[in-house]
Every structure is written in C-alpha cells, then in structure tokens.
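Hi all, a correction to my earlier message: I attached the wrong file for Protein VAC14 homolog. Here's the right sequence:
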Amino acid sequence: LSAMVEVLLPSLNDGEVSSKIAALKWIHYLYEAMSDKFFIYMEELFPCLLRLLSDPSDEVVAFDVTVLSDLCTGKEGYNTTVEKFGLPAGSVRKLKAVSPYFVHIMKSLLDEFRRDCSFLHDRGTFIIRQLCSVLKVEDVFHTLAVLLNVEQDLDFVSRVVQILNSIFLTAPELFSLRNKLKDMPVHDESNDRNLFSSLYLCWAHQPVALLALCLISRKYKHAANIVHYFSELEVNADLLVEIDKLIQLIESPIFTSLRLHLLDPTYQADLAAVLYGLLMLLPQTEAFLILKRRLQCMPTLNYGMHSADQLKATEKSSLDQNAEACVFRELMEHFILIQQKHREYNSGKLKLKMREPF
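and the right structure:
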C-alpha cells in the first residue's frame, strides 16, 4: 500500500485530468476494499485531496468530493479533533456530531474562498452542491454556518451567505433540508445543534437571505418583525435588488406552500404583513406589480375557519410558547447586533477610503 500511495501522490499533485481521475478512483477503491489498512495513509493524502477541490475540472472535483466523503463517513478512529482548529468552546460543542475531517474540509474550503474571491464566485456553488450530493446536506450547511459565525471578516461572511442562500433556495440537492426546516421548533434544550438557529445566526449577515430562511421555515410572524426592521436599514440599491430576487422566487415552485398559506387563516395575517411590508419597501417596479397582483388574489381573512395546523397550534402549552418567544427575541437581538456591526464596519471602511490620497 505504501508503494501505491507513493505512485498516486504525484498524479494527484501534477497529473493531467485523466491521471487525477484515475488516481482518485484508485484511492476510492482501496479505501472501500481495505479501509482499516488504508486509513493510515489518508493523513498523507488528505492535503492533496483538499487542494483538488479548487481544480478547474468539474469531473476531478466531483470524484474528489466522493473520496473526501469516504473519509468523513468512515468508521475508523480519527487522528484529528475539532479542538485543534482553535474554535470557541460553543462552536466545538455544536460540531461534536460530525467527523473532525468533515470540519477540516469545510474550514479548508472557507479558507480557500477567503483567499480567492473569484474562486468563491466561480466555483463555490458547484463545489458546495457536489458536497451536498454525497454528504448529509444538514451537516454541510450546519458546519459551514457554525464556522462562518466565528469569522471576523464581515464582508466575506456576507458574500458566502449570499451564495449559500442561493443554493439553499434553488438547488434540488437541498430539497430535504428545506422540508426539514418547515415548522422546525426553535426551542430544544436537549439539542446543541438546532438547525434553524444555526442557520439564522449566520444568515443574519444578509437581511433578505434571513427573511427567505424564515419564510421557508414558516416562521411568518418573526419574518414580519424582520421586514419591519428593514426600515432601520439603509434601503439601498443592493437591498432592493435582493428583495426583487426574493419576489421572483416567491412566484417559483419553491414557495408553493407559502402562496397556499395565503389561504390559510393560521398563517394569513402574519404572511400578509410580510408581503405588504415588502410591497411598501419596493419602488413601483415589475417586482412591485408582481407582488401586488399576488396579494390581490388573497381572500379576506375568515376567522371562522380553523385548519388542522391552527388547531394543532392552539394545543401548544403556554410554556412552549413562552420559550419559543424568548428564543425568537434573542435571535432578533442577534440580527440587530449583526446589522449594527455591518454599519460600523462599512463606516470604518468609508473613513479609511476618504483618507486615501487621490
């Protein structure tokens, strides 16, 4: 095996596309055939496999992701720990359920995105979708969210969240995640990795992305609070463009359930508050007219009707409702704090730019 690894390494580092693919296939085969013996060589191969994520060939990246997924899902003992990445204790606790190699892959990927902005925009979506196709989607997004939450570069986090949100809303690979988030409780004392909360803390860097997350997750009342807070933000061209994109998506199949909820007394009032709020924020563009026409289709709220969801909601104990309200209050405070940090960050950048000589 040692001799084979010595032969495979040069092909991974400097080979042609066909050589890289052949080497990756061999690694995949050897790992499947004798994982217990081959695992010790993965430490040597791992850095090469990480570098291949930035390979210009889609086929190489696809095979590389498959091999990396073998390592992440293997049953053998790990020679690394999450603690070695220098993450805060809270982040380590949230990542305890995933493989340390999985965290290593995600962290290395973010490091590469940070180093090369064009790589993030040109290849980021493809790589993340490939990872989601062979690994557990929930783990991919949860881990990325936790790692991004400790990032100091706010611009970088915003850019990554924008791309992640686009994947989240449109990629077929994310269908299961979107379904899982629907009506997911936000209060669970026994769970350190509440998926909605993890994504929320990260998505807070992008107001419209956060709103979309709440809409997909059917947290309409909280979404209405977020839209109301938009009046405190600088409503610039970038924000309006993002709202415009969201309006277009609301008309897509992804948001079919949301449109049907306009007929449901359980959700109608809160959802109408969200959509009318967006309508008031928009100038009278095509997106404004699309949303206006959609709202005109909404029937008058009928308080005499009670859906199954509404009856289920009334059965919630007051304790659960209070706990959930408390969590939402904390999440909203986090969102406001993050937006304040962005304002301060942007203000600082502007001051530095003004000091530069012409």
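Sorry for the mix-up. Residues 318-355 form the longest helix (38 residues).
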